[in-house]
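Quarterly update from the structural biology core.
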Amino acid sequence: MNINFTGRIALVTGAGKGIGRCIAIKLSELGAKVFAVSRTEADLDSLKEEDSAIETRCLDIGNWKNTRKVIEDVGRVDLLVNNAGIVRHKSVLEASEEFTDEHFDVNFKAALNISQIVAKGIISRKGSGAIVNISSISGILTAPGFPMYCSTKAAIDMLTKSMALECVPFKIRVNSCSPGGVLTPLGAMILASQEQRDAFTGRIPMGRFIEQEEIANTVAFLLSDYASMINGAVLPVDGGHIIHMALNPVKK
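Predicted structure, tokenized:
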């Protein structure tokens, strides 16, 4: 399989670090002109040093109006990866309005906002394109202490299906990629001890964490013409984590 995005323009949010950064570099390596979006200038500077062909935009995508202006100014985009997200720890009983809004503004509303801009652009020029929303198996399996994160990921999965249904007549495919455990900087912070990490991988049939490169490869495939008949899918990349949990629920 030889994926080649030469002549295609891609935009990746949350591209400063972790999975988003890996995706941005992968798409650039495959020939795409990449616009990388992050709210942290230092991360974008570091990315630019690693791959000088990548264009960067420093942006807080939680700001709806400013995001529309910046993304519209980018111009043509053929391939979109809505990767940016936040995760904070608060129980259902502790979650405030501000806490809830913060999660939905970044994890859900921003993906809708940017997707609208990109999709309308593709339609207006009678082009074609693909969108991948980075979700999580937390949209399927809840995690104690993270109700807002899990809820936003479940919402993204349904948004993906709705977008896929409505956008496909305009030659735009939309899918979700749902990673399991990945030791990004954030993942390493949440699973800080070796005991926590061993317990987590013990629930994964394949017995290890997912590599960021494996997520980037999946995203590249979903954006490519090799996935031309994949639309509205929510694709877990989790080593079998969700099937193991379904068959072996946690015992009290």
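Residues 205 and 243 are 9 Å apart (CA to CA).
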